[in-house]
Amino acid sequence: MAHMAMMNKTDEAKFDGRALVKFGLLAGVVATYVAVIGMIATFSQRQVVAGLLTLGQVLLVAPPLGMAYFSARKMAGESGGKILAAGASIGLLTTLPLIGLIILANNTNIRIMFVNISPQLVNILTFGQDSVFVGVLLLLVVLALASVAGAGLTLLPARWRQALVMGVASTLGIALMSELFVVILRERLGNNFVRLFFQSGVMRWYTAVGIFLIAFGFTLFWQWRGTQMRGRLQQFTAPRQKQVRWSGAGISGIILLILPWALGTFLSEVLNNVGLYILMGLGLNIAVGLAGLLDLGYVTNFAVGAYVTAVLTTTSQYGLGPIPFWLVIPIALLAAMLTGFVFALPVLRMRGDYLAIATLGFGEIIRVLVLSDWLASRIGGPQGILALQNPSIGNFFFARPEHFYYIILVACLAMLFVSVRLNNSRTGRQWMALREDEDVAAAMGIDTILTKLLAFTLSAAAGGVAGAIFAAKLGTVFPQSFNLFVSINVLSIIIIGGMGSIPGIVLGAFLLIGAPELLREFQEYRLLIYGALLIVVMLRRPEGLWPSATRRRELQDAMDLTSHLGVVHSEVISHGQSANPSRMD
Amino acid sequence: MALLEVNDIHAYYGNIHALKGVSLTVEKGEIVSLIGGNGAGKTTTLRTICGLLHPRGGNIQFDGEDLSRIPAHHLVGKGIAMVPEGRGIFAKLTVLANLELGAYTRNDKEGINEDLEKVFHLFPRLAERRTQVAGTLSGGEQQMLAMGRAMMSRPRLLLMDEPSMGLAPVLVDLIFATITDINKTGTTILLVEQNAHKALQVASRGYVLQTGEIRLSDTAVALQNNAEVRNLYLGIE
Lengths: 585, 237
What we know:
The complex is a heterodimer.
Chain A: H1 2-11, H2 17-36, H3 39-43, E1 47-49, E2 53-54, H4 55-74, H5 80-107, H6 119-125, H7 132-153, H8 158-176, H9 178-189, H10 191-197, E3 198-199, E4 202-203, H11 205-235, H12 238-290, H13 299-313, H14 325-344, H15 352-371, H16 376-379, E5 392-393, E6 396-397, H17 401-423, H18 426-436, H19 438-443, H20 448-474, H21 484-497, H22 502-518, H23 526-540, H24 549-562, H25 566-577
Antiparallel strand pairs in A: 1-2, 3-4, 5-6
Helix pairs in contact in A: 2-4, 2-5, 4-5, 4-7, 5-7, 8-11, 9-10, 12-17, 12-20, 12-21, 12-22, 13-14, 13-15, 13-20, 14-20, 17-20, 18-20, 21-22, 24-25
Chain B: E1 4-13, E2 16-26, E3 31-36, H1 42-49, E4 57-62, E5 65-66, H2 72-78, E6 80-83, H3 95-102, H4 109-122, H5 124-128, H6 139-151, E7 157-161, H7 169-184, E8 188-193, H8 196-202, E9 205-210, E10 213-219, H9 220-225, H10 227-232
Parallel strand pairs in B: 3-8, 3-9, 6-7, 7-8
Antiparallel strand pairs in B: 1-2, 1-4, 4-5, 9-10
């Protein structure tokens, strides 16, 4: 243990004045950057709390706050005053580049080069003060306070910190979706009720405080009683436990069934897109997460599924049918599996980067093929295929997003079931062994060629089904829908959610597909946010936001090795022994 | 008839002629050591025997059956297991999952559990850490895991590639003691080592490999006393 403690000390960079300046200026550069590219101005159009706080202001204080938090964590063990002072200086340092920006904007015509450095931006940065001097002072104070708060977070006991973060996150989350809540609440509870808590679609201050307090209180309560309640559940007899679990599943089931009708058309459509990406994420996870085969051409399977469906269900001149959608699904699935199989054959001997590049090429081949003149007489080329028949049961036609929701739900549940089963199966083990070391896997008696083919083929199947539903949902198929970004989206979902983790993929799909749909006015910054998110996740949480049980254990074991804190040590050990893989800490 | 008979095999990496006619035999119940310097072809010989590499000339007979064209994953079922160089454990899987993968080709649940107990008996450290992720084990524990995993297929012939590599001297002693123990339970062992001294101590016979050819072969005792071996591989003037 003593040896490890020593290792740890030399391992960890000392946090000194230089590091402080570096982090402070870094936060400043980030804040200035988001200002210069116009993000702050655009985000300021969205209010979080009526008349008090805009999303732009949140974006402005986030870099110093976050940076102060991470810096303070590195200073763990120092005195509280020192940590708070460091936080304050990070906030003040952040302001420096911003002040430079304000002076530049007021005295030169920099707008010729940077369109977004507008008087309006200066107005936001100086909090609408007439005097620039007062405004800059205000900016200094606000950012310093924010970073003191960030640094102060590390001084709080973990449970209070968690409760605070949950409170703020819930308030922000609900604020971002407030317009939708307003629409739903107005339908159910009437206009007067809504006006009591919202002002033209934005939360009133006491609403925000209320939401914060509820989330804060609930988190505290859960930390206080949650372990007890779980303990009590474990004390129940087996049949009673089963009963509790089944009733939980029943309630979730009912919620899932009535969800589209509670949420309305627009949100159902958002859910549908999320669902399709969950389906594809779970599919790609077989290749990437389990078998370690980095596939950058997943869009191929999606496109095959969609075009097979289009050709078989359209009433236009390209149609071979039309035949019922329910028959088309298995055909699309088989077609995608066949494609996956055929495309896997030439890359069986490739590993790692080479495989990734080759599969990237496959994605492009499909994109070129569906656009080509060569196939235009069969699948419409750039014009795509129109007039797909809606799926139907008897006289009922699936036409609205609320209807398609159920098809997607069934597909997702089926894929979830398959994924969970595969994860714990012999085949799953085979894939994981292949991922870890191909040669050794072969030496253990695993047929690596067959195993790879199986991974590619099964992975493709989910993409095919997603494509089929996607085509039916739109009623048309256009080649533009099948570009590289589909592959990138699916892969990002897996990486951000947590490689190989099923709940992680669901979370990732909601975050990367659902959230952007709800924040459409910020569409132009979508890829930037994606990139930033990927980098932050890779740096701070390389195992993903909701990692699989093994990945989590692995990182905790690693922590066990490097940590010299007895407390952490015992926590890890107790965690390693508890067989409860489905819960996130 | 010998359990393993390697007859004049030639192996290539691309155009590089790595093995230039290697022949060796391993009798049932023996420990045979294959020693040699860096790049002598020790690992290549093992990789060829266990099917990861196919020889362009010569043949490999295991229990009277020609192995030269059989892919690696079929050899486990025939009774050959490998402890790869650098341990080759599945770093992100648990200790238990690693061991279970060792028994991948077997279907007899009871037998597997029995062998699992045997491995845990042989390496109590692994039993303590069965739910831990293998990548976080220490080097010695990883070597134990690799050996335990190989034992899980109930091999008749165990191929070991540099089991002492990168281990502390006290652990090297432990590993070699265990090799002897494994051998006593009836498993034949072909051992590739740079630590010639240790390898010849546990072995009954040895081969010295040099630039892809067998340079010397004799009983382990004779090799230990051979002037050239003492000079080149044991560092004794």
